[in-house]
Amino acid sequence: MIISILRRMAWALVLLALQVLVLDQIHPWGWGAPLLCPLIVVTLPLGTSRSEALLWGFGLGFVADIFAGTAGIGSAAMTLIALLQPPLLEFMAPRDSEEELRPSFSVMGRWNYLRFMALLFLVHHVVYFALEGFSCFRIDDIAISMGVSYAASMLIAIVVETVRNPKK
Amino acid sequence: MSDFIERITAYIHWALFLLLEALSGFLLFQYNHYQGSVWFTQANSVAAQVHEWEAYVLSYLRMPTENAALTQRNIMLQYNNDVLRHELADLRADSSFTQQAQTRILSGMTLIPARVVDNSVRQKDNMLVINVGSNDGVQPEMGVVSGTGVVGIVSQVTPHYALVMSVLNSHSSISCRLRGTEYFGYMKWKGGRTLRASMDEVPRHARIKKGDVVETSGFSSVFPPGIFLGKVAEIHNSSDGMAYELEILLSTDIANIRHVNVINNHNKEELDSLLAQ
Prior knowledge:
The structure holds two protein chains of two kinds.
Chain A: H1 2-22, H2 38-42, H3 50-68, H4 73-92, H5 105-108, H6 110-133, H7 139-164
Chain B: H1 2-10, H2 12-31, H3 33-61, H4 63-92, H5 97-106, E1 109-119, E2 125-130, E3 143-146, E4 149-157, E5 162-169, E6 174-178, E7 184-188, E8 196-203, E9 213-216, E10 228-237, E11 243-250, E12 259-265, H6 268-275
Antiparallel strand pairs in B: 1-2, 1-12, 2-5, 3-4, 3-12, 4-5, 6-7, 6-9, 7-8, 8-11, 9-10, 10-11
């Protein structure tokens, strides 16, 4: 149990470092930066209680906000997807899954996991960019930023997940 | 009990979610200048809108009181206007002792505000009932006016109510004159349209045109001079051809009247005796 939590924290630290040190500096064509933090919530194992998921989501979002100077934005978006992740995983996970299934391409299937990841990333990005823009007057700018960031985030997340869990 | 605790814990994540989102919202608006200013501005706009609605509703609730006050104010202004007009005329030319005395005596007038509780306009002899009576100082033969002009004359009183003979009554006859002239006559209602009455006995040499203002003459103790009655709408010859008969467009819509004032002239007897001279 403790080892599992420590491993998850180490994984979170790696992704946070990647986010803060590298991805926050990248702005494709001047639009929104890729956001990889949701991947930590996406990969919470099956059986994680909702309260625990919420605390993970808020905590990670809070830390990411401190480094990005976006107080409250990341934590609000991460908390929301942390609320959605457990029931969505239960719904999309294979029926005969082991109790502590960790979502990945290998255990959920490529398309199934991609859909699962894409959905949570989408919710996260919509909330994140809506709160960051916080205006209806430049909604087209906000939508483009969100779209670019979403595409870049998904691409990087797929690469990270493929490297981390090569298909057997 | 344990079942109850289980149920609570089963939904505790919702409370935690709301708490964490509220905390995020606090951080968002507290530490981001742009979002904070937008929130502050929007919150103020919402509060201002709510206060505007509140004021709008309250203004409706206060309307009866304000209407009564405005009506009273309007009548006083009409009266003051007439007094000033006469004072101006006195300064321009010598005025008779009677006119000066009349103005002085009418300064002892007070108004008793009242509300119309019953009204009729479809009969030949229409009457109104108002919610003040002898206990309020109302007596028969007192004039009743609204903010737009003359309404009628008190006919009978009970301790709490008074019956008013409306100007829309075939027995009503109100002494009136054309503003700016000394041509006077009597305004009567001959039935039919509720916004039309007639003024008789206007001499043929009088220069009259449509739109001339008709007001009370003050030649009685019932109404002070200068209270608006209406405007000349049509000019006809009288039946004997010796005078004009004017059709007057009444300024007061009796069918749509709520607040009135009864004129209490403290110097009624003195004025009556003076006018009788």
